[in-house]
Write a structure and sequence with these properties.
It contains nine helices and six strands, in the order αβαβααβααβααβαβ. Helix 5 packs antiparallel against helix 6. It is globular and about 45 Å long. The chain has a single domain, classed as Rossmann fold (3-Layer(aba) Sandwich). Strands 2-3-1-4-5-6 form a six-stranded mixed β-sheet, with helices on both faces. The protein is of the alpha/beta class and 252 residues long. The chain starts with a helix and ends with a strand.
Length: 252
């Protein structure tokens, strides 16, 4: 039942309505990844480096998140609706805003990874999931996809290490199976993503804060991924990517 719902859903991902960003002198970047990959840190660093407006994920002001990790089945649907609403408004603000922007997790991840995972693990009822997907299809139809999605891939042991390090009380008991499923769905989504450019980076050995060369490596890969990069970046002084950084990059 779950696979047929997902198959039908994946065939309706196209967008319409808003004018595209391509051709204008601004870009829209989204940073994607599982819980604990370092998305928010990278988003903030890239925002500071390139002068992009950052749109961060709603965590501290989220009224459902702590309850969700206590009782996923009870709070899965309202949490996903909250995120859908939050990310839709952020996406629209970026599209219609005057300058370049970077978003910490995209609306597409909510549907393709998180809601799907909750439904297929039995944490969301089918009627709620169908209702959610119907709403998502309508909302995403009014969105122009990002110019580039950066997917930070991280293994389960490294995810757990980062989650422990940042010490959020409500995240301490996230099941390994939940994180592993999210990783699988992220890989599946990226493999089939065709709405724009994508940059996939294995981030197990990257530390954007403690090792500046790691951040420089990612910044360079982003510059190389963007068409007409001279419109958006001051590329003077940017050297070649750091060869010793261990990363597996897929760019299409």
């Amino acid at each position: 039942m779950g696979s047929s719902v997902q198959t039908n859903f994946q065939s309706n991902l196209g967008g319409f309505g808003n004018p595209g960003l391509q051709g204008s002198e601004k870009i829209f970047i989204a940073v994607a990844g599982n819980i604990g990959t370092g998305k928010t840190t990278l988003t903030q660093l890239l925002s500071e480096r390139f002068g992009w407006k950052s749109h961060l994920e709603a965590v501290t002001n989220n009224p459902y998140l702590a309850d969700f990790y206590t009782d996923m089945k009870r709070w899965a649907f309202p949490l996903q609706i909250f995120f859908l609403n939050h990310r839709f408004k952020a996406h629209q603000a970026i599209t219609w805003g005057p300058g370049s922007a970077i978003q910490d997790r995209s609306i597409y991840e909510d549907a393709n990874i998180f809601a799907r995972n909750l439904f297929e693990q039995g944490q969301m009822e089918e009627r709620d999931y169908q209702n959610y997907l119907d709403l998502y299809r309508v909302m995403s139809g009014f969105l122009t996809p990002p110019d580039l999605i950066i997917y930070l891939r991280k293994s389960l042991p490294k995810l757990k290490e980062q989650i422990t390090k940042r010490g959020r009380e409500y995240e301490k008991n996230i099941p390994d199976s939940y994180l592993s499923s999210l990783n699988r769905y992220y890989d599946d989504w990226m493999k089939n993503y065709t709405m724009g450019k994508k940059l996939v980076i294995d981030s197990d050995d990257l530390d954007f804060v403690q090792r500046p060369e790691d951040f420089e490596y990612v910044a360079q890969r982003i510059i190389e991924a963007i068409d007409q990069r001279d419109l958006f970046f001051d590329t003077k002084g940017l050297g070649a990517s750091v060869a010793k950084v261990s990363a597996d990059v897929l760019l299409k």
